[in-house]
Write a structure and sequence with these properties.
The chain has 226 residues and is α+β, with helices and mostly antiparallel strands. The chain has eight helices and eight strands; from the N terminus they run ββααβαααβββαβαβα. The chain has helices at residues 22-36, 52-62, 82-103, 106-112, 123-126, 151-168, 182-187, 219-222, and strands at residues 4-7, 10-13, 74-79, 129-136, 138-141, 144-147, 172-173, 194-203. A hairpin with a 2-residue loop joins strand 5 and strand 6 (144-147). The longest helix has 22 residues, at 82-103.
């Protein structure tokens, strides 16, 4: 059977299906679920170094995500510079303090109590790496706009893969979204077509890290079959 085919004038490759017996599928799906069920949002991160090669591979994994028209509308900014992390923390805490003091409703603040979070964000300096994910609202081609499609959906999927990859190598992270996040564009000197989407501190969990005793919804609460 031919391995390539021209469709609409473009080269396509034969997809080599990974097909497992039912018993293997059951085992693989169970093992992966049990691994991911151990994933937690960790705010107490160690300053222990993480090699850049690991961060590179995590970003490569995130970049395997599907995207609208295969535009891959994302940029991952990986930051290890202590001075840049300090600048990001200062700006983020200023926005977070404003949110906690004036922007968040009483209901929102009450919902956050079990998580025990506040406007102080030491993990932005403690973590050996920050990965700031930018979405490309459009592409710049010789200074002309080129459309991207389903940008939020595409970048959201890539972030999900990134969080999964971080957990799979034994590191920890949390999804940090200070609002507004325009300061990240300025600090990192990003082009006008990019918008900050998500900030992920990445590192090892601190030795005495604690996480809230939260319960995930049961399958019957999140799945509907027809």
């Amino acid at each position: 059977m031919e391995q390539t085919k021209i469709i609409n004038g473009f080269k396509h490759l034969k997809y080599n299906t990974l097909k497992y017996p039912k018993e293997v599928m059951e085992q693989k799906s169970l093992e992966f679920y049990e691994s991911m069920n151990q994933r937690r949002t960790v705010r107490d991160l160690s300053s222990e170094p993480v090699d850049k090669s690991i961060i590179n591979r995590l970003i490569q994994t995130a970049s395997t995500a599907p995207s609208g028209a295969h535009k891959q509308p994302w940029t991952f900014c990986a930051i290890s510079s202590a001075s840049v992390k300090k600048e990001i923390r200062k700006a983020a805490e200023a926005e977070e303090k404003e949110s906690y003091d004036h922007r968040m409703s009483d209901r929102w603040l009450n919902d956050l109590k079990p998580i025990a979070t506040d406007w102080h964000k030491p993990f932005l300096e403690n973590a050996p790496w920050l990965i700031v994910v930018f979405k490309q609202a459009y592409q710049l081609d010789q200074k002309e706009k080129q459309n991207n499609y389903y940008v939020n959906e595409s970048v959201g999927i890539a972030c999900g893969l990134l969080i999964t990859a971080i957990h799979q190598v034994g590191l920890a992270t949390l999804t940090h979204t200070p609002s507004p996040m325009a300061f990240l564009t300025k600090i990192l000197n990003r082009p006008k077509n990019e918008r900050p989407f998500l900030l992920l501190p990445v590192g090892y969990a601190a030795e005495h890290a604690y996480v809230p005793d939260l319960k995930r919804k049961l399958l019957k609460e999140v799945a509907v079959y027809y």
